[in-house]
């Protein structure tokens, strides 16, 4: 299977299915649609599936909604509630959870600022538990949040910062939020992925750092990500595909021209484009022009979902009052 840059398990499964015309052995897939939101649950269950997909054994839940690019308050609330429900399923029934929320990314670069923006909107409570000398509360979890920045601005590996905090405050789980990369422009800023397997900071922009997962931190790491970029080769490949579709509709079926267009493989297309772009350092990362507004909206959705999922006594009305 050729390597198109993607952080989505859904897309890794699609790549295999398109090439082999069959499901991956050891992968369970379930899909559900709620109004405009499509939920796809992918579970990688064994090492064979892990090798094929290039993803760790675990659960990957993807929410897709093309309308997320619109400023629709009711839709954002609906997606927040759906995301909170899926997040609760991954976290489990822990009514007094201690969680560290980590907003990964560079707050000075808009497509990479999703994590820090989410962390700034999370309802943090650990200090209240310490001040009032409480061990538990029926309505609140013990939540901390941090935006560790990136090595280029701090000089410190993100994994080292998070590991030090985990050793000090000893949370039950870490929830990490980061920007991802997709193989399709249509999924940029319209897709949210939850995974139970952790994350590699910087993977969305092709700069993988030390992994944040149970093996490195000693506690389960739940990752939430949104693809905010694609590489130029992927964008060009998508564009060529759309042009081919338009041309093939005009060409007579069965003609040599039509058959040539239909038989051109994705692997050949992507590899050729990347080969042409690489010598000129032109395979850059691409994001929509209105990414600042979209990332702000997505940060509200994800922060709302985290607040609802980790605080048993908080609902959508409460979080909308808190986040502004």
UniProtKB/TrEMBL annotation:
Keywords: Hydrolase, Protease, Zymogen. Residues 1-7 form a propeptide. One of its GO terms (molecular function) is metalloendopeptidase activity. It catalyses: Endopeptidase action with P4 Glu or Asp, P1 preferably Glu > Asp, P1' hydrophobic and P2' Ala. Its EC number is 3.4.24.78. It holds the Pfam family Peptidase_A25. One of its GO terms (biological process) is spore germination. Autoproteolytically processed. The inactive tetrameric zymogen termed p46 autoprocesses to a smaller form termed p41, which is active only during spore germination. NCBIfam families: GPR (TIGR01441). Homotetramer. Initiates the rapid degradation of small, acid-soluble proteins during spore germination. Belongs to the peptidase A25 family. This is Germination protease. It comes from Alkaliphilus pronyensis.
